[in-house]
Amino acid sequence: MSKRDNLYLVGLMGAGKTTVGRLLSKHYGCTFYDSDHEIEARTGVKIPVIFEIEGEAGFRRREEAMIAELTALSGIVLATGGGAVLSAASRDKLKENGLVIYLRGTPEHLYERTRHDRNRPLLQTENPLARLRDLFRQRDPLYREVADIVVDTSRQSVTGMARALYGKLDLLKSGLPLPDAEG
Questions:
Q1: Any domain includes 183
Q2: Residue 181 is assigned to a structural domain of this protein
Q3: In this structure, what are the phi and psi dihedrals at residue 163, rounded to the nearest 5 degrees?
């Protein structure tokens, strides 16, 4: 299987991974998967319920297994959960089996997108913006470690991001190097 056959999206919650992933899968004629949705479909319950019953550690074990399963497929676009990169095994699977796109948004921008969403257990705190800042500090280096492409999500619409990605991905698929700038 060629690394170029799969596209994996990483980034914090609210970055647009699922929305952009669906656009990419449609554009390239690939099957789309969202690892969180796959976990919910298999367990029959929402992510917050898994967190409540099994804790974050239990959810992360399920997530690591799901990432291993999905990265074994070919010709897919995968939107990962925001914490998928916390597992070294998952980071390795992502790097080895596809092109990784990091949708990078500022904590402030992501807070605006997620502040009314009750399906995000890590944000059910007294200060969700502070929590997003902490998650960003912890995870940004891990996202960058696995990323082949970094896209700033705060500067453009989802369709604008997708259009920019088509160009970058076409360059990569043709074997040409990408310009260094994020965008």
A1: no
A2: no
A3: -60, -45
